[in-house]
Write a structure and sequence with these properties.
391 residues; alpha/beta; Chorismate Mutase Domain, subunit A; D-Maltodextrin-Binding Protein, domain 2; 4 domains; 6-stranded mixed beta sheet; 5-stranded mixed beta sheet; 41% helix; Bifunctional chorismate mutase/prephenate dehydratase; aromatic amino acid biosynthesis; EC 4.2.1.51; EC 5.4.99.5; chorismate mutase activity
């Protein structure tokens, strides 16, 4: 008896049916995640349960191997994405309950550059879970973003603050020193730099390259081999792509994201050009008023402080955090505007502002510093993968 053979068309039709079933199941699972969040409101349980997630993954890995011949890395990768989505959905549900006054049908959001810039991509990614209609407001400079929010023309501003390759974005840190705005959220976005052109050309033909200064810095090693190319800075990667499109010359390229390049009719001629393969930018979201963060959600608190010029002044403040068991995830120093040789310290702490430990820390830090200000307490939206044994 010969086995039945299926045509390519039959196989594709069956794949389409399975994909549709997967979408339906994912939708049902999402709805159940919201029901879980509702039950956690009543029981006051935290959003994440590491033991439960670990048990779930181990069970799925074992069942996948024994019943369906699926390997552990594949199952882990798929369900990490599902768990991450579930956690963020539940966090968003609890945040909406904690901030009913902040819930609006539309949100006006200011960001650097035009459509297709990395700040624009981050804006869409962050607000995709907020169930609001987005009104996008592009800005030419970082200070224009903060001014739009401070004046009330925008509800939120999205600002890049640090990159894994090029480090801190000092201009944004300096703006935080002067602004009255509060940090209300954060997002970490993978950055995938490539060379974009109007047509397929060789690297030897390139004479001018446009981009924002940050990507130029993040791709410095690759650009070091292109000594025949003139580098031109733009206000954003989107502006660089727009210039290449308008000039329409075979010897001009831009650095940007491949998907954004399509908006301007550009094609990638060289991908993965960043100094680091794992290239990420952390963005902060700012608003005129702070947000209330549910105690069931992992939170981060950001503050700025100025210490005295005495020896060991900064160390004394760090000892306070160590004593109270508060994890510091970022420490950045910047000059105090108008006070030569004085430093302002920006500190990110993995702690909820309302926690007993954080309140005690603020009390002691106020006594030890010349100046102290909380810039914001906001949900940690970087969901770390659940750890399981190697299979």
């Amino acid at each position: 008896m010969t086995s039945q053979k299926y045509s390519l068309q039959d196989i594709r039709l069956r794949l389409n049916e399975l994909d549709d079933q997967l979408l339906q199941l994912l939708s049902e699972r999402r709805k159940l995640s919201i029901e879980v969040a509702k039950s956690k409101v009543e029981t006051a349980k935290p959003v994440r349960d590491a033991d439960r997630e670990q048990q779930l993954l181990v069970k799925l890995i074992n069942n996948g191997k024994e019943k369906y011949q699926l390997d552990a890395p594949y199952i882990t990768k798929v369900f990490y994405t599902i768990i991450e989505d579930s956690v963020l959905l539940q966090q968003n549900y609890l945040q909406n309950l904690a901030n009913p006054v902040h819930r609006k049908p539309t949100s006006r959001v200011a960001f650097l550059g035009a459509k297709g810039s990395y700040s624009h991509l981050a804006t869409r990614e962050y607000f995709s879970r907020k169930n609001v209609e987005l009104i996008e407001m592009n800005s030419e400079q970082f200070k224009d973003v903060t001014k739009s929010v401070e004046s009330g023309h925008a509800d939120y501003g999205v600002l890049p603050i640090e990159n894994t390759s090029s480090g801190s974005i000092n201009e944004v840190y300096d703006l935080l020193q002067r602004t009255t705005l509060h940090i209300v959220g954060e997002l970490t976005l993978p950055i995938e730099h490539c060379l974009l052109a109007t047509q397929d050309i060789s690297l030897e033909d390139i004479r001018v390259l446009y981009s924002h200064p940050q990507p130029l810095q993040q791709c410095s090693e690759f650009l070091g081999y292109m000594r025949h190319v003139t580098l031109e800075s733009c206000i954003s990667t989107a502006d660089a792509m727009q210039k290449v499109k308008e000039m329409n010359r075979h010897d001009i390229v831009a650095i940007g994201n491949a998907s954004s390049g399509k908006l301007y009719g550009l094609q990638p001629i060289k991908t993965n050009i960043a100094n680091q393969t794992e290239n990420y930018t952390r963005f902060i979201i700012v608003a005129r008023k702070p947000v209330e963060v549910s105690l069931q959600i992992p939170a981060k608190t950001t503050l700025i402080m100025a210490t005295s010029q005495e020896a060991g002044a900064l160390v004394s403040t760090l000892h306070v955090l160590q004593k109270l068991g508060i994890n510091m995830t970022k420490l950045e120093s910047r000059p105090v505007m108008g006070n030569p040789w004085e430093e302002m310290f920006y500190v990110d702490l993995a702690a909820h502002l309302a926690s007993a430990e954080m309140q005690k820390a603020l009390e002691e830090l106020t006594r030890l510093t010349k100046f102290l200000k909380v810039l914001g307490c906001y949900p940690i939206e970087n969901v770390k993968p659940t750890q399981v044994e190697q299979y």
